[in-house]
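User: Before I run my own analysis I want an independent prediction to cross-check against. Here's the chain; please return only the structure tokens and, at the end, one sentence I can use as a sanity check.
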Amino acid sequence: MDTMRDRFIATTSRLLDEEPRTALVLAEISADGFEQAQRRHPDRVINVGIREQLLIGAGGGIALSGMRPIMHTFASFLVERPFEQVKLDFGHQDTGGVLVSAGASYDWPAGGFTHMSPGDVALLDTLDGWTVHVPGHPDEAEVLLRHAVTGDGRVYVRLSQQSNAEARPVIGDRFLTLREGRGPAVVAVGPMLDNVLAATEGLDVSVLYATTVRPFDRQAVRAAAGGRGDVVIVEPYLEGTSTAAANDALADVPHRVLGLGVARRELRRYGTIDEHLAAHGLDPRSLRARISAFAGQKARAAHRRS
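Assistant: Structure tokens:
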């Protein structure tokens, strides 16, 4: 199976052929993959070198000319380093563009903390009007990328080396219901799905799958939580990033929300992706224990009241 980054390169190369208003801005990362596209469209495939602030600034200028820019590099260099340009050159200018990342939270552990970006979605949450896609499979990434490029808004497509075994249908911005149960509603975001499904096997919980987290599908969470009001969100980035959104969705009913994701503490050993998942409690065994404990707290409280 190809990776999401492989699919991004293939799909964007085709979009440059199909959509004359599409332009691609790179900062060296993935430049080798776009050599042929650059030869076909030298005026619409631009590599600014290792100048990430310029990457965003050039994209903002292209957007003001009426074209649709796609800007791509590692997440830490796409959102964190040039955040001021993201805020001003797109938000303040009230124009649109597509950010497509690679690297995610710890996809390349050997690259060290400079190449890890668990806080990217939380950072974008401080800005207005960004749609955030978090695909869990290359097929989903292609659908979401095409949707983003043909639109006009501000969109972040967060790609990852981590991937689920099979693609799920993408139904616009809605969460997909995969299991229904009487316990907590567990929302699995993007590449967290396979681990969540394994962790909740045999548990009496509902499982929702999210490939778009902004806007947050409040209706689906309310429906899944029902009168129980218990929600667990498992995200592949900073833990708690979406707990405020879930709390807002359930503001008028008694509820509890547990946010699981990448911990704030920095892991100072390189390790592997799987070792990072385990260290952050996001492997199936750890998730099962944490979700079961959360569900059990309410059951024990109800037993004491009876």
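Sanity check: The mean pLDDT is 95.
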